Amino acid sequence: MESVDALLEEYLASYTVQSTIQNKRRYILPLLQKLASARLPFSEVTAAFIDQHIIDEARGKGWKESTTASARNELQRFVSYAYKRGLLAEELELRLYAKTRPRAVQYFYSVEECQRILEACKRAPRHVALAIHLALFNGLRRSDILSAHMDYIRHDGQRVLLHLPLRKGGTSSTVVLPQVTVDLLPASGKLVPCSYFVLKKEMLKIEREAQLIAHPLILHSLRATFITQALDAGVSERDVMLAAGHKRLTTTAYYDQGYKTARVGVSDAVVSRLQA
């Protein structure tokens, strides 16, 4: 737990009012103590674990609804900070407010939309264009993109590789970067040296320039586009699964939005054959 303790002190260092610091400790320390007693690494924290912790604390200490809401907000800020520091494999801040959330239907951009996005990237800040390239050309998750560092870059002959030591689920993998992405790499430091919120504001400018009317510019949709376009290009499902960092083919199939068109084509073929 030493690294988590250091993270907490680093997090609290940005605050100067002692009452505020004490209040934050009041909510965060019980969570860290529960993790220590459960021997649960901080990287494996889940939204369900945090939610149950809040319920237990509220019941045991007789919290009012306002106090419970304050605890949730403080833990959300701390978990969000830990995510940005690369200590969490998955962002949880948006999931803390709901126990169940319907799974959103993935959107993928058409070839024409991708071309407009890439054209707009030429006039965007270098690190913003790099983030979009990593999602669209390598299918990286947002957490992978924001935590990637130039120390992870490897060279294998003529290829440039990006080694990701910790992906979702605690796995590691290495991806090959295309030359157009390599040209955007910085000299040192993090590949995308900004928070997601800053990145999102810059991506909004690209979204407007690319005239994306049907769907906003989102990294996860770029990832879905990578998977769909790879499958449409004839890449095997197994290779796409490995490139996307999935453990099951069913997960890869969920991201593949091309199946909708395929189903229509199959039905038309059957109708034409039977009615001939």
UniProtKB/TrEMBL annotation:
Superkingdom of origin: Bacteria
An annotated GO BP: DNA recombination
Domain annotation Tyr recombinase: ranges: 104-268
Family: Belongs to the 'phage' integrase family.
Keywords: DNA recombination, DNA-binding
GO molecular function: DNA binding
Core-binding (CB) domain sequence ranges: 2-83
Protein name: Site-specific integrase
